[in-house]
Specification:
Blueprint lengths: L1 H7 L1 H25 L17 E3 L6 E3 L8 E5 L16 E6 L5 E7 L17 H5 L5 E4 L4 H8 L4 E4 L9 E3 L9 E3 L1 H6 L12 E3 L6 H5 L1 E2 L2 E5 L7 E5 L4 E6 L2 E2 L10 E2 L1 E7 L1 E2 L5 E2 L3 E9 L2 E9 L7 E4 L6 E3 L3 E7 L3 E5 L4
Parallel strand pairs: 3-6, 4-24, 6-7, 10-23, 17-24
Antiparallel strand pairs: 1-2, 3-5, 4-5, 8-9, 11-21, 12-13, 12-25, 13-14, 14-15, 14-16, 17-20, 18-19, 20-21, 21-22
Length: 349
């Protein structure tokens, strides 16, 4: 039967072959229909972010190279007739110190932002070289006793002194203030003329923000800070949760900046208890160590401060032996005499 089929079915075989050919052609046609075209070339829209580094006097993240310039410092008056001062709201760091008569003055430090003007600028005191030396940079002041000026000139800091030829175009007496509380410095212009002076180095350890600082995480909740430099100078700070900063008060009133009218504020308030050598001009002794409190993020932690030499920065060590981390932001350093007082007031007290 098979032989019969092979011989007798030539026509049928031819038909089968035609059918197979048609099916093959159909499959080829179908394959052509479902073939997809090539995908378009991928183009990324990602842009490489600019390199960053840490601002040495604030601990904030900034664009790399944006702070490659000197720190600018000034001896700022804090007499009642000098208030409100100009430019303090832009500072990175402020040191408050006791001077004669029971009043205080500031050594203010600008780097992250250098204002066009600040002041009133006053004369230096014997502790100022130890304060200024670690920052390098430039310091403005209105003279001082010859031995104190000599001490400052022996630091690695450019001395910009009122009344000298190199500052004649950058320091002046403002007509809307009374002497001697009226010397104003044109800081940003002077800095631009001295672009060869090196930037400062990192002075403290910093957390990413106030909430991550040592005081906020490990300290006691704090509503306010009360300080006494003398019987008549008793500044204070109150915690403002809305801004995550402490707000400054003097004589029971908000302490403000003349440039914007805003109350002065600080991410960190660092209080150092310091010995003061009393003579005609009090001298805060900063080479050594002592008790400290660090207030950040609504909390206050006890610590020990130390400073090994005139050019060394101040270090802050917690009672656990670990370096205290400040919150990224500006800092006020209160150099409270041992004869003065400090208290951190808890909420509801």
């Amino acid at each position: 039967m098979i032989a019969t089929l092979r011989v007798g079915s030539r026509a049928a075989a031819a038909g089968i072959l035609v059918a197979l050919t048609a099916m093959t052609a159909g499959c080829a046609a179908e394959a052509t229909v479902v073939t997809k075209s090539a995908a378009p070339a991928y183009e990324s829209t990602y842009e490489q972010p600019a390199p960053t580094h840490i601002a040495p006097l604030r601990g904030t993240t900034v664009e790399a190279g944006s702070l490659d310039h000197a720190a600018v410092m000034a001896k700022i008056d804090n007499h009642w007739s000098a208030r409100p001062q100009l430019g303090l709201s832009a500072t990175d760091i402020v040191f408050e110190e006791l001077v004669e008569g029971g009043i205080t003055r500031y050594v203010a430090v600008w780097h992250s932002t250098v204002p066009e003007q600040f002041g009133p600028v006053r004369s230096i005191r014997p502790m100022d070289p130890d304060i200024a030396a670690p920052f390098g940079g430039i310091i403005f002041y209105a003279g001082g006793q010859p031995q104190f000026v000599s001490m400052m000139r022996n630091t690695p800091v450019y001395n910009a002194i009122h009344g000298q030829p190199d500052t004649a175009d950058y320091m002046f007496r403002a007509s809307d203030r009374t002497a001697p509380h009226n010397v104003i410095a044109e800081a940003s212009k002077f800095l631009a003329a001295h672009s060869d002076i090196a930037a400062p180095t990192l002075q403290f350890a910093y957390a990413a923000d106030a909430a991550s600082s040592t005081a906020a995480k490990e300290g006691s909740p704090t509503q306010s800070l009360d300080l006494a430099f003398s019987t008549q100078f008793r500044p204070s700070w109150t915690w403002d949760a809305a801004s995550s900063r402490f707000l400054r008060w003097q004589d029971g009133k908000p302490d403000t900046d003349a440039s914007d009218g805003q109350q002065l504020a600080a991410t960190n308030v660092v209080t150092l208890r310091v010995p003061v050598t009393m003579s005609a001009v009090p001298k805060t002794e900063l080479i050594g160590s002592g008790e400290a409190w660090v207030s950040t993020g609504g909390g206050t932690v006890h610590a020990t401060w130390s400073k090994a030499s005139a050019t060394a920065p101040i270090t802050l060590m917690g009672d656990d032996g670990i370096t205290v981390r400040l919150g990224a932001g500006n800092t006020w350093i209160e150099l409270v005499p041992l004869a003065g007082s400090f208290s951190a007031v808890p909420p509801g007290a």
